[in-house]
Amino acid sequence: MYYFGVDIGGTNISAGIIDGKYKMTDKACTPTIQGRSHKDILEDAAKLCLSLAEKNEIPLDKINSVGIGLPGLVDTKKGKLIYANNLSFDHIDIIKEFKKFIDKPIYIENDANCAAIGEMMCGAAHGNKNVIYITLGTGVGAGIILNGKVFRGAFGGGGEAGHMVIMAEGELCTCGRKGCWEAYASATALRREGRIAAAKYPNSEIYRLVDGNIKLIDAKTVFDAADLNDEVAMEIIDTYSKHLAIGIVNLVNIFQPETVVIGGGICAQGDRVIEPVNNILKEKVYGGVLKTKLAVATLGNDAGIVGAALLFKNFD
Ligand SMILES: [Zn+2]
Predict the structure, then answer these.
(1) 314/316 Cα distance (integer angstroms)
(2) Statement: residue 72 has pLDDT above 90
(3) Which among 134, 156, 130 has a CA at the least distance from the CA of 143?
(4) Which of 38, 57, 216, 272 is the least crowded, having the fewest Cβ atoms under 10 Å away?
(5) Mode of pairing for the β-strands spanning 92-93 and 80-83
(6) Ligand 1 center to residue 162 CA distance, Å?
(7) Does 108 lie in the same domain as 145?
(8) How far is the CA of 49 from the centre of ligand 1 (A)?
(9) Measuring CA to CA, which residue among 184, 264, 269 is closest to residue 222?
(10) Both 46 and 142 in a single domain?
(11) How many whole angstroms from 62 Cα to the centroid of ligand 1?
């Protein structure tokens, strides 16, 4: 048997086929294009799936199911997307609408939860049952799996780790409140600090790397400047690591997972992010003995597709 997995994001729609051993056979993607209707986006997703099946000569009766990851609040039982700030539609019955294109059992889930499932089943947390997946990108997303089940709270919206407050009256967050972890640990936060520092220190490598065009600075620029032994950049990364670690310490103290998996753009930095955070974790974790493993996502951008394809296994 084969399984379709779809990952609908604000930027791209990705789809893949996994086989009975949960290995990705093939994948494809197409731009989401902001502002389009749910019908157009779901039709594109279905077309991607069908073209993958055709290209790999897999007949549709060999396809078991379709899993769809969505960026926002998802009612998995009713099959509805409740809210997504990256898409121009909500309160849509995704399962009913997608069945118009592919008449198979359809499952939907939040995208960070899909990535957590993917990493638990086939990636950095393989063999674990208590896993926290954190994605560090534009924002900070999280997927929490406890005893093999996705944690979503009593009303479906739990597990928003990015919006735990780590600094009273701190930086403004995209959610409108102040001091959220996301406002300190996202790639956007690192970019913000890089730009502020470059404006203040025109002799820094951060400033030089973009020839003074501060708008070009992103999170990677700060890491690149640190590679050149730029003290300003190194200090920003040091502070960033501390803030990232505070949130992880909080999560480890509450949930004591076997593994915390770091995904998203920042995870491309690998040990440069993992090592300092792990050192802080060892020092700050409650009880003084760190048993939780901190790991970089091994499936990369495929985690969401693989996790979505595996939704038929039921992680509730
Ligand atoms: Zn927030």
Answers:
(1) 6
(2) no
(3) 134
(4) 57
(5) antiparallel
(6) 7
(7) no
(8) 35
(9) 269
(10) no
(11) 43
| Containing structural domain, residue 87 | 2-121+302-313
The pLDDT tens digits for 169-178 are 999 998 899 9
Residue-wise pLDDT for 16-59, tens only, equals 999 999 999 999 999 999 899 999 999 999 999 999 999 999 99
Assign 3-class secondary structure to 47-88. HHHHHHHHHCCCCHHHEEEEEEEECCEEECCCCEEEECCCCC
**Cα 298 to averaged position of ligand 1 atoms, centre (Å):** 27
What is the 315 CA–ligand 1 centroid distance (Å)?
Answer: 27
Give 136-202 as a DSSP string: ESSSEEEEEEETTEE---SSS----GGGSBSSTT-SBPTTS-BSBTHHHHSHHHHHHHHHHHHHH-T
How far does residue 220's CA lie from ligand 1's centre (Å)? Answer: 23
- Mean pLDDT over each residue of the chain, to the nearest integer: 95
What is the 140 CA–ligand 1 centroid distance (Å)?
Answer: 9
Check pLDDT > 80 for residue 86: no
User: For residue 219, how far is its CA from the centre of ligand 1 (angstroms)?
Assistant: 20
